[in-house]
Write a structure and sequence with these properties.
Mean pLDDT: 80
Keywords: Bacterial flagellum, Cell membrane, Cell projection, Chemotaxis, Cilium, Flagellar rotation, Flagellum, Membrane
Number of strands: 10
Order of helices and strands: HHHEHEEHHHEEEHHHEHEEEH
Protein name: Flagellar motor switch protein FliM
Structural class: alpha+beta
Strand content: 15-25%
CATH architecture of the largest domain: 3-Layer(aba) Sandwich
Strand order of the largest sheet: 1-5-6-3-2-4
GO molecular function: cytoskeletal motor activity
Largest sheet: 6 strands, antiparallel
Family: Belongs to the FliM family.
CATH superfamily of the largest domain: CheC-like
Distance between the termini: 67 Å
Oligomer: single chain
Helix content: 25-40%
Number of domains: 3
Number of helices: 12
Subcellular location: Bacterial flagellum basal body; Cell membrane
């Protein structure tokens, strides 16, 4: 039965109907059993959980923001891209859903196996091409007779755009997108079997006054090695990596040979800008510190020690006398 809560009067009426023979308890049980059976289409296998689909949506929301920034800079016009939907469907259904002639960019994503398709609606593709060529961003659908120059310009633009997927996916996997193929007819594109489950992320795209869709098609075989990383548990867990003794030893060696600037401050003085402009060779600037007072020794810009000046082997030197009180606390103030 449904999760609806019955009132006391409805319960009394139901019991009265059962007692009077107006309703059959066996028929109610049979009806309840029939409701529990769900039709499952094996041609439309759902191989991703809702949790994994949500993770993919979050990844591509970041990708959409990166594309918005990239295309805005490249096309020098208003661009707005956002995720419209993320669905898992058979590959055959994806091919049937896109135009017969469109812009298809097939990418390899090593170290993952398989290919990812970025399908760009012709309206959007030609608006981009027109802007790159110096036009106003007018869309002219002529996919069937693209010139070699137009194909080269488009493929270069989309290859650079898709490289942003590397940054969007960095929290899940380190990939290196490479454009493997540029196609205009989806019927010639058989990446996987027709019944293979793919995730299609549709991006609403607005370029100046032209709007359309960009679809990213990711087959299950590509995501299979990293599916566990798409769960909420992976995103939320805090993994603490313990450093092995060898790593600690290497870090200590590198720290010990790191160079630090050491400054012995002889004193300070304050002069006016007029006096500064009139300084000449041979002028003397009087410091506000007596030669009898110890010097402040700074490590970087932080006062750490006090010392006294002297000579070692005819070279100027500073002898450290004591640690400066409060010197350690200065690190927190910087």
């Amino acid at each position: 039965m449904s999760g609806e809560v019955l009132s006391q009067s409805e319960i009394d009426a139901l019991l009265a109907a059962l007692s009077a023979g107006e309703m059959d308890a066996e028929e109610l049980k049979k009806e309840e059993a029939d409701k529990r059976v769900k039709v499952y289409d094996f041609k439309r296998a759902l191989r991703f959980s809702k949790d994994q689909i949500r993770s993919l949506t979050r990844i591509h929301e970041n990708f959409a923001r990166l594309l918005t920034t990239f295309f805005s800079a490249q096309l020098r016009t208003y661009v707005q891209i956002s995720v419209a939907s993320a669905d898992q469907i058979p590959y055959e259904e994806f091919i049937r859903s896109i135009p017969k002639m469109t812009i298809l960019n097939v990418f390899e994503v090593p170290p993952l196996d398989g290919h990812i398709i970025m399908e760009v609606n012709p309206n959007i593709a030609y608006a981009m091409l027109d802007r790159v060529m110096g036009g106003r961003g007018v869309s002219l659908n002529k996919v069937d007779n693209l010139t070699e120059i137009e194909m080269r310009i488009m493929s270069n633009l989309f290859e650079k755009a898709f490289s942003n997927l590397r940054d969007a996916w960095e929290s899940v996997a380190e990939i290196d997108p490479i454009l493997a193929e540029f196609e205009v007819n989806p019927q010639f594109l058989q990446m996987v079997s027709p019944n293979e489950t793919v995730v299609v992320i549709s991006l609403n795209t607005q370029i100046a006054e032209t709007s359309g869709m960009i679809n990213v098609c990711i087959p299950h075989v590509v995501l299979e090695p990293i599916i566990p990383r798409l769960s909420v548990h992976y995103w939320m867990q805090t993994q603490k990596k313990e450093r092995v003794p060898e790593e600690i030893e290497v870090l200590e060696k590198r720290i010990k040979v790191a160079k630090l600037p050491v400054i012995a401050e002889l004193g300070t003085s304050t002069i006016t800008i007029q006096e500064f402009l009139q300084l000449d060779v041979g002028d003397v600037i009087q410091l506000d510190q007596s030669i009898q007072e110890p010097l402040i020794i700074k490590i970087g810009d932080v006062p750490k020690f006090i010392g006294q000046p002297g000579k070692v082997n005819k070279r100027l030197a500073v002898q450290v006398l004591d640690t400066l009180k409060g010197g350690e606390d200065n690190d927190d103030e910087r």
